[in-house]
Design brief:
Length: 371
């Protein structure tokens, strides 16, 4: 066993550490220690089997209710799954069952898991234009939606730029054409509820049918973890599967699901509370503002958009983003390279401190001066 442990520990030495503050590429962070404890206490449980593990079902119901409250609809129904990809597949499956049609319309900024979801279900994915701020262009969506459209997908916190699509306006299109409207809030779901001035994006918008969010991002719980919520419980009847060896029907995409994920979310919600999350988000947003202003002050760099969440994307007309990405990595900074639009993306997470932002800006300034 000692040899095995040495092998895996040696492999782990190749990994970057969040606590170093050098990782600006990830939408994940170090999970809360309390969330880890919750996961470990339920590490051998299965959320599928409530006969053996009734405790997990109780916790899952509490988690869905609390996150439903966070998203302005405590009566929402859903389940804890593996993350945004599963949630998007599930939502489009449900959308097709409820609003029969073979087309899905989404802005070009939509997460690539929607491409997967449509390919798996043989749905035609029609991508629409973005406006000058990289949000969904409502007129472009109007042009593409028709009576064969089952679902429209919008994003509350896009992966590339962190912007929020105009969900209220898109909801009017979904209403006019009687479409299922799904909101991918995989990243924004644990940020937006704790910001003071944001456009309406959640179940407050009457036409929003489902929302997916990932607690393993800004929710600070272990990977994998995701929640998918739907507005009406009766909708789940359309996808319930009556397994012959289970005592209850199963309105989920996955069968076996780790009870540890359920417990870790519940522990995190109770340990931090909404106010604790608010403080985490406030810290990240303050550092994001400092980072964005610092980048703006560097010659030959420009922001793509003003940050709406804790995401900063910038580019340069003088040096290709791919070159900046590679050079920063060689200097010990891990950032993301966006290809659409071509840019550098930085995500400010709870593992970042003011000293990390200051050090990064100094390195970036020095790098640009040397070009």
């Amino acid at each position: 066993m000692e040899e095995l442990l040495n092998t895996v520990l040696n492999l782990r030495e190749r990994d970057w550490e969040y606590k170093s503050g050098k990782v600006f590429s990830s939408m994940c962070s170090n999970p809360l220690e309390e969330a880890w404890i919750g996961y470990q206490l339920f590490r051998d449980t299965n959320a599928l089997d409530s006969d053996i593990f009734p405790s997990v079902k109780i916790l899952e119901e509490k988690v869905i209710e609390e996150i439903g409250e966070l998203f302005a609809h405590p009566e929402a129904h859903g389940y804890v799954g593996s993350g945004g990809t599963e949630g998007n597949i599930f939502a489009l499956w449900l959308g097709r069952k409820l609003f029969e049609g073979d087309k899905v319309v989404a802005p070009s900024s939509v997460h690539y898991s929607v491409d997967k979801a449509c390919d798996l279900q043989r749905l035609e994915l029609i991508k629409t234009k973005l406006d000058e701020n990289y949000r969904a262009d409502v007129e472009s969506i109007k042009e593409k939606v028709d009576r064969e459209t089952s679902s429209i997908v919008v994003t509350a916190g896009t992966t590339a730029t962190g912007v929020i699509d105009p969900i209220e306006e898109v909801a009017e299109v979904a209403e006019d054409y009687d479409c299922f409207l799904h909101v991918d809030a995989s990243f924004g779901g644990f940020v937006l509820p704790f910001l003071e001035k944001v456009p309406t994006w959640n179940f407050e918008v009457d036409r929003v049918c489902s929302i997916v969010a990932d607690p393993d991002k800004m929710g600070l719980v272990p990977i994998p973890s995701g929640v998918v919520l739907v507005r009406e419980e009766k909708w789940l009847d359309r996808i319930n599967i009556d397994a012959p060896y289970l005592s209850e029907v199963e309105p989920t995409l996955l069968g076996t699901r780790p009870g540890g994920a359920v417990a870790s979310i519940w522990v995190a919600l109770k340990h931090l509370g909404f106010e604790g999350y608010r403080r985490k988000v406030e810290k990240c947003m303050n550092l994001t503002d400092r980072l964005a202003k610092g980048i703006e002050a560097i010659d030959r760099l420009k922001l793509l958009v003003e940050p709406e969440l804790n995401v900063v994307s910038f580019t340069s007309n003088f040096i290709s983003p791919s070159e900046i990405y590679q050079d920063l990595k060689e200097e010990g900074w891990l950032v993301s390279l966006n290809t659409q639009p071509e840019s550098i993306r930085l995500v400010v997470m709870p593992h970042h401190e003011p000293k990390h932002v200051k050090s990064f800006l100094e390195s970036l300034q020095k790098y640009m001066e040397g070009r």
